[in-house]
Amino acid sequence: MRDGVRCETEKRGHSSSRGRSPLEIIVDASEGFIPLWDKGTTLRWKFRNSSLQFFENPEAAKGEIEVLLGEAILAWGDAAPVKFAKREDAWDFEIVVKQGDNCNVSGCVLASAFFPDAGRHVLSIYPKMFTQSREEQVETLVHEIGHVFGLRHFFAQISETEWPSQIFGKHQKFSIMNYGSDSRLTAADRQDLKRLYDLAWAGQLKAINGTPIRFMRPFHASGVSAQAVMVGELQPVGRLLTRPEA
Fold first, then answer.
1. Which bin fits 139, alpha (ψ -120 to 50), beta or left (φ > 0)?
2. Which is it for the CA torsion 199, 200, 203, 205, positive or negative?
3. Residues 148-167 pLDDT 10s
4. What is the domain partition of the chain in residue ranges?
5. What is the pLDDT of residues 90-100, one digit of tens each?
6. What is the DSSP string of 111-149?
């Protein structure tokens, strides 16, 4: 995440109730517990087709976005605690491309995602993301996938204190969950995420600093409707896909 980019999944640098923003490793504890995905979870996703009709070639746009998503998921390697499957029915989240950007004096949002729970969710992508370099587009989605895994921003305990978080392992500033020049996916990011889930699934880690861990099952597996907890919206830069002029 470069400077001038905001995350809406957790809003950057605010301590207010709308400013939500975890790694070596900062994990979400804003509901009084730490939500992690149950072992063996597969998240089913689909495109909201109506959101892509603004592209000159919606099918080409879908294909490119699917490649970007795949690269972002693969970047996490074997640390990824869930699998992803494209399904048109019984889906857990939709990919939605917004028609307009979301910018303010702090910067623009590139994308937004969600934290683990049993609800149906949206992974939103803003036009600004397509103005970034390809590397930045992938890094934006790597960051958002980190939120989907349950991770919060590196600075969550510093500047977003109204929404509790807990640190697992060592707090390191170089992380894909940070911003600017400190934002990069590191071996420590992957190692800590894998260790966190492995210990939790094995029953060897039931709480972090006194905050209990709860395992979540996705909507299609639980049938439980839960309110989505929207996380970081990142700000986009570079148009890779062409949209028709209004």
1. alpha
2. positive
3. 999 874 433 333 344 444 45
4. 5-221
5. 999 999 999 99
6. EE-B-SSSS-EEEEE-GGGGBS-HHHHHHHHHHHHHHHT
Peptide bond into 145 cis (omega under 30): no
The pTM (predicted TM-score) of the whole model is: 0.76
| 77, 150, 192, 226 from 47: Cα distances, Å | 24, 22, 31, 20
In DSSP terms, 131 is beta-bridged to: 238
Closest CA to 32 of 233, 229, 232, 234: 229
Length of the chain counted residue by residue: 246
**Ramachandran class of 107: left when φ > 0, alpha when ψ lies in -120 to 50, beta otherwise:** left
State whether CATH 3.30.565.10 applies to domain 5-221: no
Asked whether the beta carbons of 92 and 120 are under 8 A apart, the reply is: yes
Distance between CA atoms of residues 145 and 148, nearest Å: 5
**Listing from the earlier edge strand, what are the strands of the sheet with 111-112?**
83-86, 42-47, 93-97, 121-125, 111-112
Say if CB 108 and CB 12 are below 8 A apart. Answer: no
Position 229, amino acid: V
On whether the CB atoms of residues 183 and 6 are closer than 8 A, the answer is no
Task: Examine residue 40 and say whether the peptide bond preceding it is cis (omega within 30 degrees of 0).
Answer: no
